[in-house]
Amino acid sequence: MLPATRVVPKAMLVLGDRPVAQHVVDELRAAGMTRIVLVTGAGGEAIRAHFAGEDDVAFAEQAEPRGLGDAVLAAEAAVDGPFVVALGDALLGAAAVRAAVDAFERRAAAGAVVVEEVPAEAVGRYGIVDPAEPAPAGAGGFVLRDVVEKPAPDAAPSRLAIAGRYVLSPSVFALLRETAPDAGGEVQLTDALRRVDPLVGVHLPAGLRRRDTGTPAGLALAVVEWALAQEDLRAAVVERVDGARHG
Ligand code: G1P
Hints:
- The chain is α+β, with helices and mostly antiparallel strands.
- It has one domain: Spore Coat Polysaccharide Biosynthesis Protein SpsA, Chain A, CATH 3.90.550.10.
- The protein has 8 helices and 12 strands.
- The structure holds 1-O-phosphono-alpha-D-glucopyranose (G1P).
- 1-O-phosphono-alpha-D-glucopyranose binds next to strand 10.
């Protein structure tokens, strides 16, 4: 996201009327989460300042950018039971978080991940799941045999990508501590998930789509969708888009 993120952290880029991080927090609140821990790295002061007055928000710091698994470990002291992990560069909707919580509970799982089908050429950008049973859409989820982080297209066990929302039991912290960093020096959450048992996947509920706010194109599309959802903006956006199409 450079040069946009030279000074402003990615999570503080504006999507419509608020920073991306606040959309994520709003999604979690709408899903029923009552305590939210924001793990911050470089530029974390802006995030702390933004949420300073919000009683349900606490902070943890990741000292070095050592991967998603390491970021989750940074929140350990604030966690006292099953918890949701929400990545700060994707918006899915509260129903996706609720679906993962529901599958986690129904299956008495140790972990649950929301998945979204991606094109074969995109599997290398995601964690990809290997279902142990048919993976129907709908509530309840399906058991996973394995997960693999950013596989080559011919090594991918499916086209179901981990979409950035997880429900985890605190037992994952011990697994994370035992997880070796990858070639790039990052501790991958996906690598620790390989040892979470049972681990279940659940599809993004019908009608929802993952919005990637971590790329310029993804953020631009998310802004358009946000604007279309605003009653007082919708007509103007449609007119501009129509004008651009025909002009
Ligand atoms: C991370 C996870 C990956 C997941 C993705 C979703 O990757 O490691 O498993 O599919 O988020 O956005 P990153 O985007 O940090 O490379």
